[in-house]
Amino acid sequence: MSVGTGHAGGAARASGARIGVVTFPGTLDDVDAARAVRIAGAEPVALWHGDADLRGVDAVVLPCGFS
């Protein structure tokens, strides 16, 4: 079994998972993060940085790349 992949010979898949992708003002990385979530087999859920509700997601991605 490969370390950190969940199974032998490849990357772990997030099939069926709902992953929140947080959008902050002035960033474009949320689009790339949502695409990566989709490629990994999960459903990206758009979240605004000021939202109090995480909309029942299984995990959250905080895109970065701005200072």
Keywords:
1 helix, three-stranded parallel sheet, 16% helix, alpha/beta, single chain, flat, 67 residues
The gross shape turns out to be flat
Which stretches are poorly predicted, pLDDT < 50 over at least 5 residues?
1-8
Order of helices and strands: EHEE
Task: Compute the number of helices.
Answer: 1
Percentage of residues in helical conformation: 10-25%
- Give Rg in angstroms: 13 Å
The tally of strands reads 3
Terminus-to-terminus distance: 38 Å
Beta-strand percentage range: 15-25%
Structural class: alpha/beta
Main-sheet strand order equals 2-1-3
Mean pLDDT: 84
The largest β sheet comes out as: 3 strands, parallel
Describe the structure.
The protein has a domain at 18-61. The chain is 16% helix and 22% strand. The chain has one helix spanning 29-39; strands at residues 18-23, 43-48, 59-61. A 3-stranded parallel beta sheet has the order 2-1-3, covered by helices on one side. Residues 1-8 have low confidence and may be disordered.
Give the helix/strand layout.
Elements: E1 18-23, H1 29-39, E2 43-48, E3 59-61
Parallel strand pairs: 1-2, 1-3
Short description, anyone?
With 67 residues, the chain is α/β, with parallel strands linked by helices. It has one helix at 29-39; strands at 18-23, 43-48, 59-61.
